[in-house]
Amino acid sequence: MSTIRNPVGPQSPQVYWRRRLVLGLGLLAVIIVIVLIVVRPGAADGKDPGASTAPAASESSSPKPSDEPVVDAGPETPCRPQSVKIEAIADKTAYAAGVIPQLSLQLTNIGASPCTVNAGTTQQVFEVGSGEEAYWLSTDCQTEPVDAPVVLEPNTPLSTAPLAWDRTRSSPCDNSNTAVPAGDATYYFVVKLGELESEPVYFRLL
Predict the structure, then answer these.
(1) Spatial distance between the Cα atoms of 182 and 168, rounded to a whole number of angstroms
(2) Distance between the two ends of the chain, CA-based, in angstroms?
(3) I need a labelling partner for 78 at 20 to 30 A (CA). Which of 5, 31, 104, 174 fits?
(4) What are the φ and ψ backbone dihedral angles of 127, each rounded to 5 degrees?
(5) 117-162 pLDDT, tens per residue?
(6) How far apart are CA 10 and CA 71, in angstroms?
(7) Rounded to an integer, what distance in angstroms lies between the CA atom of residue 130 and that of residue 44?
């Protein structure tokens, strides 16, 4: 026991103590390595220390297709009736004797996207009347009506070429050219285009 506490040999006691210290530290390091291999820190809670810690991608992170169909709005899309404003246009409010009224319709797309409407004579009906009586209809005696699809840009009014009304009745279709009453008579003018119908405008025949 005395030789452990007081080393005996040719060297000084300090040399023997340093050798014992180095040997003890070496043994301790070997023991720690063995413990780490056996215990494997982190394995107890089911985690692999070498595994990546990046979070798994969430299923909601990628976009899912919509259940609703996507409507491709564009010039080929038919205009909805509620998206089109139709107006009857007369070039004057009063016409002297012998002056022919020039009548037209104006369309305005009040929607947000361009759309197409058939503004042809297959869809147009111009009507001129007074009181409860319709004196003239553009569809009376009409021959070879045509389609005319046009693109309406948002908030850009589009007018048809004026139609001259000769101040006569449109029926019967026998070229009788019966003149309508004048002498400061008031007439209304309305225009229809398919489902659309304008508010009436009024003018006088003097």
Answers:
(1) 11
(2) 145
(3) 104
(4) -130, 130
(5) 999 999 999 999 999 999 999 999 899 999 999 999 999 999 999 9
(6) 101
(7) 97
